[in-house]
Amino acid sequence: MLFRRFVLAGLAALALTPIATFAADLPNLKGKTVVVVTENAYPPLQFIDPKSGKQIGWEYDAMNEIAKRLNFSVQYQNTSWDAMIQAVSDGQYNIGMTGITIKDDRKQKVDFSDPYMRSEQFMLVRGDEKRFADAKTFSAFKDGLIGAQPGTTPFYTAVYEVLDGNEQNPRIKLFETFGATVQALKTGDVDVVLTDGTAGKGYVDASNGGLKLIGGPLGSEDFGFIFPKGSDLVAPVNAAIASLKADGTFDALNKKWFLDYKMGQ
Questions:
Q1: For an engineered disulfide with 134, which of 108, 157, 203, 215 has Cβ 3.0 to 4.6 Å away?
Q2: Average pLDDT over residues 154-161
């Protein structure tokens, strides 16, 4: 419960920002088609429902509501994380969403929306893990391996906040998708996956005790949607984000996906 309160407190901090923009004041994009790409590997933000096979999650609900308020039609496509930023930068897609941390180096390639969520980094381990309990004791456990995606915030957190700052450290095992890192954790191929609390909580809730989060937060990050540089969608989407914060829609989505939804049930 402490973790849940901590994550929701960060989300609520954004939702409570005073905003004067409301839906009636939003731009009208007149039904244009907007291609949105995602990874579908980041519960509860976006993932494939194991029962229905449908694409669902917080970001889908938020983007669908943004589309409704701005009057555009969404066409969803999927790609891997390591291809996404470059593909959006190249103009293959109009918007990218997969819990993307707003970082200055990424702003060289893409434009970001205003933040729509804040999350913290945590250590995800198997439910029976007793060899270490936090970043310090894991660092001292020399046989421990971390699973991460190259170029992501968890990768750099592993390198610079958990290990020794060496990006070639052999204790870091690289995987193409976040889902693959979690599968490697479950099978014992790695011992830790660093993840923001958002995704970590989703996997813990779905694991029936097979996974848990340990230690305190290793840092915080703001998530934003990404666009090709100079995109004329940035300002309208920012106005819609402000609207969703102001009228409590984001609060309702937080409750739906972080409190009420249980994967696999």
A1: 215
A2: 84
